[in-house]
Amino acid sequence: MPGRLIVITGPSGSGKSTIIQALLQKTDVQFSISATTRSRRPGEKDQVDYIFVSPREFQDMVDNDRLLEWASFNDRLYGTPAEPVKRRMAEGQDVLLDIEVQGARQIREKYPDALMIFISPPSIEELERRLRQRGDTPASDIQDRLEMAIALDVSSDLFDHIVVNEVVDLAIAEVVDLITS
Ligand code: 5GP
After folding, report:
1. What range defines the domain where residue 41 resides?
2. Strand order in the sheet with 76-81
3. How far is Cα 70 from Cα 106, in angstroms, rounded to an integer?
4. Residue 105 is part of a domain; what is its CATH number?
């Protein structure tokens, strides 16, 4: 049986990364490593957290149809390399994509059966409070709020489930349940 595609979307400040880390430990889903033109943050590893590429290399991937989906976010490009995802699914493994809303929409069109989950903070106010606390840049702050607004607007069509992350352990349990049930 081919593996499933699992998409997790949510603004930074939603706790999405924490939830994904827990999922990777608690289930046998495989994380899809995205290509990006943004620069590496301290602690991030090339080919582990992301495949860090130049804008030219990214364009090559687009031109050669090597990305399953891609989008621009905060003026940087992000995309899912198609080959590893297709290979793993063919091998029967479930693959997890951590992508933003425009990418999620492209995946929904190509893979109507994908399991798509949106991780939401309890409220826009709480999202803003978390982002302020993290000291994120104003630019990403704006894009994340936009993301949240768009996602809430389209979520009923696009996402199969919205998980409100009020208490992270409960949110993790909920997502594990969605994936394994
Ligand atoms: P960050 O730069 O904070 O790691 O990620 C910024 C946003 O890009 C996050 O919402 C993340 O989910 C999204 N993202 C990461 N990889 C991809 C990808 O391959 N495609 C798309 N469309 N979005 C991605």
Report:
1. 5-180
2. 51-52, 35-36, 76-81, 67-73
3. 8
4. 3.40.50.300
Q: Give the mean pLDDT per block of 10 residues along the chain (181 residues).
A: 94 88 96 97 96 98 98 94 98 97 94 94 77 64 66 72 93 96 85
- Nearest to 96, CA basis, from 11, 19, 181: 19
> Which residue's alpha carbon is nearest to atom 20 within ligand 1?
79
The predicted pLDDT at position 145 comes to 66
Q: What is the pTM of this model?
A: 0.91
The b-or-e profile of 49-61 (16+ CB within 10 A means b, else e) is: ebbbbeeeebeeb
- What sign has the CA pseudo-torsion 106, 4, 168, 79? negative
Q: Which residue's CA is the nearest one to ligand 1's atom 11?
A: 99
Q: Is 73 in the pocket of ligand 1 (CB under 6 A)?
A: yes
